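#lab-general

N.A. 3:47 PM
ok so I finally got the sequence cleaned up, no stray characters, all 269 residues accounted for. can someone with queue access submit it? mine expired

B.Y. 3:52 PM
send it over

N.A. 3:53 PM
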Amino acid sequence: MFLNDLYHALDPVAFTLGPLTVRWYGLAYLAGFILAGVIMYRYARRWKLDLSVDDVVNVMTGICMGIIIGGRLGYVLFYGAGSYWSNPLSILALNEGGMSFHGGLIGAVVGGVLVCRYQGLSIATMCDLGACGAPIGLFFGRLANFVNGELWGKECDLPWGVMFETGGNVYRHPSQLYEAVLEGVLLFVLLWVLARKVPPRPQGTFMGAFLAWYGVCRFLIEFVRVPDVQLGYLFGFVTMGQLLSLPLVVLGVLLLVRARRLGRPQAVC
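B.Y. 4:20 PM
back already:
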């Protein structure tokens, strides 16, 4: 099995420099942030928006901080099952893993909004640009999950099944790669196609499409992904990931309807 051989040939540690250990997971975050910023700037130029490199860097800085803080706090609140309250300092142990996409999304929006307000930038347009760049980060993040052998799927007998070190002596769905394709590659292509139109589509179009697509894909992937062991299934058959993704679908559809109805043009200020 090619994917199984590939997984066992990969090392979560990219390289070491003396006492410094650099992991692919950290590099994935870095690459995602940088490339998302590049996408935002290039799309702004295509849409003929007067957005400077400094503007993008500042907004991306706020988004990055929001993702890290929100992603960690989201994991603690949504998936921690109360275990962190007995040892609050463990919340800061980012090296031990545990990040939530939904918490990171909230953090990214909050961080980006604060910077936009400070710099007088249009929140709606920056959200659209940020949504166009986000699939890049999701793609690299899920690849890093695969390398780490975490967030694997249920047992399967498919040719591309993978036997993860922490998943027992059985082959499992490489659900990380399913998400990398659906939430990363395909979502990026969808938004790229939408973004090619000049003048650009109305404010809210891209954020709406991003939320709706991600929510649907994440909800479906959860059917083949093993839920976090500390939570298991909610209500007997629903996972926390599915529960958190449904509001994204609803919000995404509402944003798309609102964008079409109002037709507000993209603008920097």
